[in-house]
Inverse folding.
């Protein structure tokens, strides 16, 4: 007797032709509207399991399953740890949890954030590739930065299919553009055509071709520290995509690192503004209780603190420093590459 791990078995079900029936979808900015359009094109008899990651806030409840159920024929639910994987159902990553897969069932975990997100797209794509190999289909929709690109590489490396929304129609084209730049994408389509393609793939038998195992990236110690935990990081490159990972497991792409460092720098600068304003206030209070000579020096110091605080505040409110800090990360990377 063959013992199965779940309703869908272990990916090697005997007596049944395997199809591309594990569909993993990732989206960010503009993703709700894109997903509504996509699911509205599904047929009620779609013989596939759909898994969705949308970058959402960890502090508020998500109503995305209700929205997708209302706009499409398939029921959508928040994935729960240990749920069996059933066909004809949409599983949505719950807030503040990564959605991953095992053969036959679902895992939801509060693992380290990737590119500042939890849930993130890459953990889902990697897990689908590991658990289901050529049965997996990765779909990258509208979104900022490049979440999903590394995971799409894993799906392709294990014989799966890579689909990307046409960047020209995406509300935020960066996620699709980065996927196209680094991955040999199989299909670049508008949303209206992706639904019918997924239905076709769900009926399409998986071939018996030999699938090459995923190429391991070359890793080296990084000069950067993790923006999340300040730990040391390892830098890796695969297919032209550079990633940074700390010993805890936080992962950043180059763009993600630039964005995280910009946020970290902004927080430090606002802390500097606060410290300068408090120093000014303290100097003025001390001046009011000092002799004339010392008071004059303290007032001069207070005026200096005020000038510096105003300069920093003007720079922060202007926003130009954010672009320069992000560009600096990229420029430093290019300089080091040229030196080699």
């Amino acid at each position: 007797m063959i013992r199965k791990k779940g309703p869908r078995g272990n990916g090697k079900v005997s007596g049944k032709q395997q199809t591309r029936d594990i569909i993993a979808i990732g989206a960010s900015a503009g993703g709700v509207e894109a997903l509504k359009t996509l699911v509205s094109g599904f047929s009620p008899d779609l013989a596939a399991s759909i898994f969705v990651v949308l970058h959402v806030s960890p502090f508020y409840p998500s109503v995305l399953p209700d929205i997708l159920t209302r706009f499409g024929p398939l029921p959508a639910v928040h994935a729960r740890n240990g749920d069996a994987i059933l066909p004809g159902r949409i599983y949505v990553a719950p807030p503040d949890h990564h959605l991953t897969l095992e053969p036959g069932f679902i895992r939801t975990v509060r693992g380290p954030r990737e590119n500042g997100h939890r849930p993130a797209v890459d953990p889902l794509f990697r897990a689908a590739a590991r658990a289901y190999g050529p049965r997996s289909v990765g779909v990258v929709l509208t979104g900022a930065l490049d979440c999903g690109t590394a995971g799409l590489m894993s799906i392709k490396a294990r014989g799966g299919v890579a689909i990307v929304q046409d960047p020209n129609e995406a509300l935020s084209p960066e996620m699709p553009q980065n996927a196209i730049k680094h991955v040999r994408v199989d299909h670049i389509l508008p949303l209206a055509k992706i639904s019918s393609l997924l239905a076709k793939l769900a009926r399409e038998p998986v071939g018996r071709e030999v699938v090459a195992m995923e190429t391991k990236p070359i890793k080296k110690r990084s000069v950067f520290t993790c923006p999340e935990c300040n730990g040391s990081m390892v830098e890796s490159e695969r297919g032209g995509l550079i990633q940074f990972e700390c010993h805890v497991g936080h992962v950043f792409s180059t763009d993600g690192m630039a964005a995280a460092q910009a946020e970290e720098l902004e927080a430090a600068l606002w802390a500097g503004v606060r410290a300068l304003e408090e120093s000014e206030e303290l100097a003025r209070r001390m001046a009011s209780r000092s002799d004339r000579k010392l008071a004059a020096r303290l007032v001069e110091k207070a005026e200096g603190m005020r000038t510096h605080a105003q300069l920093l505040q003007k720079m922060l409110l202007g926003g130009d420093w954010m672009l320069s800090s992000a560009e600096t990360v990229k420029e430093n990377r290019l300089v080091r590459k040229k030196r080699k």
Summary: Confidence is low (pLDDT under 50) at residues 1-15. The radius of gyration is 25 Å. The CA atoms of residues 333 and 339 lie 10 Å apart.
